[in-house]
Design brief:
This protein is mostly helical. It has 16 helices and two strands. It has a single domain, classed as Orthogonal Bundle (ADP-ribosylglycohydrolase fold), CATH 1.10.4080.10. It has a two-stranded antiparallel sheet.
Amino acid sequence: MVLKTDAGGQGGSQIVSASEVKARAVGAYLGCAVGDALGATVEFMTPREIQAHYGTHNAIRGGGWLKLKRGQVTDDTTMALALGRSILAAGRVDAHAAAQAFDSWMRAKPIDIGHTVRRGIIHFRRTGESCVPENEYDAGNGACMRTLPVVLATYGMDTMQVQTASRAQAHVTHNNHLSDAGTECVISMVQAALDGVTITRLLHGPVRELVTALPDFRFRGRRRDNPSAFIVETLQAVFQALFDTDTFEDCLVDVVNRGGDADTTGAIAGMIAGALYGSDTIPRRWLKALDREVYDACRDQALALLALSPRYTQC
């Protein structure tokens, strides 16, 4: 089976094999988990501290402030998997199902949880509402870090449908225009990468559109080290690492060695680079180090979610 794509919305069309799309989808999910596990070791460290402790941090070794086991992941990956399970159960992206999944995830006492995420889930528990009020201070990266299931389930949908699905899950905890814009840009990037577009077309397509509409996201100029959980800083670091390297490994090593919210910058960079370069480019030593249950869950969920997408169901 082959899929005719629109080359990520950049004009023209191309033929991409279904097996290639599947490999890129699996690469995105494993890339997210690998980036999470790699970055968690150096989360909240500065680049100078990372250099002093590890030289160049390029191994999945666990530890960090969370005292992780080698190959263990954090909330970035476990929230994505929880969201993915809700989508598969409902057959679509559903805000209430996502909120229930996040509630169950928090009740299971995850190893880490962000303040905005916790507040949103508590809001759902108290009110039954799956959308928090809009808040100018909720421009964190929590909605973006877990968005990959939406990417795969909506692959082939039109822009408005993708936006609606993205905001359904995002607004359970993060109802903010910067969060929405950054998250939707990442969705566009990964879906375009599934279509086989080049890195140049990612830069001149979704990223240019984001920066033009919201100049806060401009990332050229000063190097973004020690990025916070603010979605603008997170994506500035991710974009710099992605567009200044040309391999999956170099991109991930670059972004996590900037420190700061390194598990999340690693996860987001990993999902984009995994789709862009494919699963075969993820270093074997990283995949072998990844928790086996997480590895299997990411691989299986990537394929199951992709099977829900219009581009596959219409074949």
